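Support reply, case 0932

Customer input (verbatim):
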Amino acid sequence: MDQGAMKELVGKKAVETMVKSGMKLGLGTGSTAMPAVRQVGLLLQQGILKDIRAVPTSFQTSIECEKWGIPLFSLNSAEIRGELDLTIDGADEVDPRGCCIKGGGGALLVEKVIAYASKAYAIVVDETKTVDHLGLKFPLPIEVIPEARVSVSRALESFGGELVLREAVRKAGPVITEHGNLLLDLRFKEPVDPAVLETELNRIPGIVENGFFTRLSPRVFVGRADGTVEIRG
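Our regenerated output:
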């Protein structure tokens, strides 16, 4: 089973396992989250799911929900009132404790707001995303206001590792997030404590948010090349 098939498998499995009618549901961003979004839409069309109120984490997710007729709300909507029953999202890396790096798709700010407003949290990944230590292979995304690019970069030098400004693809210049900010990607040379750094990094003036997700106890669905799904947590 190739990586695309693993993503389809694990997204469907998470929805079938955890999504119930009547839920206030956060829906994530990225190539592994999209199969979950499509499965929610399919089950709504079939009448298996009903009364789903979905909160998207990005423009990508909103557009996919529109395609499938999934009712959309914001976290501020009167029907949501700032709290979700469940969020399903992908991750760029996940460690044995269920801590994650997210933000490869540039939506880490809203992804974290929605994740931390959820009573339950599900992560869907293929087996290539499981690691022993976060941030050694896939860099940690850090969202920064444009005016603080240089000062934040200097402050991050003390953490070691390789720091780069994320450049856009098929557009000249840097990636601009949906909230008008820049992304710095920090790859560590040695293992770090993500729970400590999640807090410490956000103390640096100019950092809006970072891609460590450590304050949750997610159920992690791992798609395997042999066609099985491992469920952790």
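We compared this against your earlier run and they match. Two observations from our side: The mean pLDDT is 97. DSSP finds six helices and 13 strands in the chain. Please reopen the case if you see a mismatch on your end.
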